[in-house]
Amino acid sequence: MNEHDMFARMQAEAHLHTPARRSGGSATDEARLRFQNLPTSTAPGAIPVRGLGDEAKLVHVNRLPGEHHEVRLAVRVRNIVVDLFAEQEADIGEYGPAVSSFAVLEAGLMSAAGEIGARLGARPRPAAPPAYQRGEHRGVGNVCAQAGPAARRLVAGARRRDLAPGDAGVSGGCKWEDGDAPPGLGYLTVYVEAPPPSAATGRSATAVAKALFAAWPGDGSAAPEIGDQAKRDHVDGTGSRILVRRANLLLYIDYHRRGRPSKAAMDREVAALARAVVAAQR
User: Fold this and answer.
1) Where does 38-85 have alpha helices with state H?
2) CA distance 18 to 79
3) 75: buried, middle or exposed (CB in 10 Å: 19+, 13-18, 0-12)?
4) What strand order describes the sheet that includes 229-233?
5) pTM of the model
């Protein structure tokens, strides 16, 4: 991937299992064993999928909100195991939008798995997603407008870039860059995603957001009380990151300053901005 590109891939691998000679297990028994031991099936946060094959599991890998998303799906149809994977990684340093939301990647994998299952004689049995719950967000507001005043104060000579990936309003973002600093040495990124309820797993929108929040590790440092949950990450001495969840709304802020900024001061600025953006999201 170069600085002008977004890396994206979707792949599927199918494995046909035969009876075990030593144990005497059937081909289906062998497939069950493989399914149970797949990295997707054993990953933290993996959850059963409804109406797909004989058994299926899905997991979201939230490597970097808005910049690197992965969704994995494992399906078993009798003695055949299918392992599917979708990933997008964007370089939003100077070019490109944010990556697609997790809902878009999940829908793409589910569609591919449904087609594969149908060819194997197991037509999918789609289920309706749960209804939105009170207090959940059906979309995101204008992040550029909400964070703009703070960004112009925090980033010298701010050059703004809209990162919206065009995901029907469920995600959006904006980036401001220091006009006087070399690329990557002074910027502010604000990304918001409001995952919808999942038809695949039957999880509520808030449950999906909780899982995505848990999937981002942070650095374990103390986080301010914002929304329902918050966690921090400090990449180096020049940056402060925070991820906040309120109901199904996820807000990610990545702030870097050139020179030798005060870590405590940057953390306070990021926390204040997070509170303002969360409050503006209705």
Assistant:
1) 39-42
2) 7
3) buried
4) 159-162, 171-177, 187-193, 249-256, 239-246, 229-233
5) 0.91
**Cβ-contact 176, 152 below 8 angstroms:** yes
Strands of the 55-64 sheet, one edge to the other:
6-16, 80-90, 68-77, 55-64, 47-48
> Secondary structure of 213-247 in the HEC alphabet?
HHHCCCCCCCCCCCCCEEEEECCCCCEEEEEEEEC
152 vs 159: CA distance, rounded Å: 9
Give the model confidence (pLDDT) of 225-239 as tens digits: 999 999 999 877 678
Q: Is 9 exposed, middle or buried (0-12, 13-18, 19+ CB in 10 A)?
A: exposed
Query: Rounded CA gap, 250 and 127, in Å?
Result: 25
Residues 6+ apart with CB under 8 A from 236: none
pLDDT over 60 (residue 4): no
